[in-house]
Amino acid sequence: MKKKVIIVEDNELILLLNQRYLAKCDCDVVGATTDFEEFGIMVAQLNPDIILMDVFLGQDRDGIDFIASLTDSAARVIYLSGTSDPVIMEKAKATQYHSFLQKPVLLSELISAIYD
Q1: What contacts 22, CB < 8 A, 6 or more positions away?
Q2: What's domain 3-110's architecture?
Q3: 10-residue stretch averages of pLDDT, the chain, 116 residues long
Q4: Treating both helix axes as pointing N-terminal to C-terminal, what angle do 107-115 and 12-24 enclose, rounded to 10 degrees?
Q5: What pLDDT is attached to residue 59?
Q6: Residue 26, by phi and psi: left (phi above 0), alpha (psi -120 to 50) or beta?
Q7: What are phi and psi of 100, to 5 degrees?
Q8: Which of 55, 68, 75, 80 could form a disulfide with 63 if both were Cys (CB 3.0 to 4.6 A apart)?
């Protein structure tokens, strides 16, 4: 059975690349958004196996805030970021994420994060 994935990414090109990568990983992208409230609704309704989350969304809330808002999801969280800032990494730890990948993400890295 294909893994269900929600992507939160504000860069359209990276979103398209991630969708292609996920198709190669035998995953089904069931939703994509950058809206905080829509994200919560999607997670509740679609019950994803994986959330692929961009950290910096160019909004008041970042991707870590999106994940911290979840109360009832068993989804595996994979953060994607162009930074390795220790403050950001420490903030992310509080969300008990599965993987934190540096952009640009390679297909092999994404496969490892999904299946390890």
Answers
A1: 5, 7, 28, 29, 52, 110
A2: 3-Layer(aba) Sandwich (3.40)
A3: 96 96 96 95 97 94 95 94 92 95 96 94
A4: 60
A5: 85
A6: left
A7: -130, 105
A8: 55
Q: Where are the domains of the chain?
A: 3-110
Count the residues in the chain.
116
48 preceded by a cis bond (ω within 30 of 0): no
Residue type, 83: T
Residue type, 70: L
Instruction: Report the 10 Å Cβ neighbour count for 114.
Output: 21
Please give the single-letter amino acid code of residue 100.
F
**Side chain identity at residue 106, one-letter code:** L
What are the structure tokens assigned to 93, written together?
Answer: 């730890």
The residue among 34, 10, 12, 30 whose CA lies nearest residue 22 is: 30
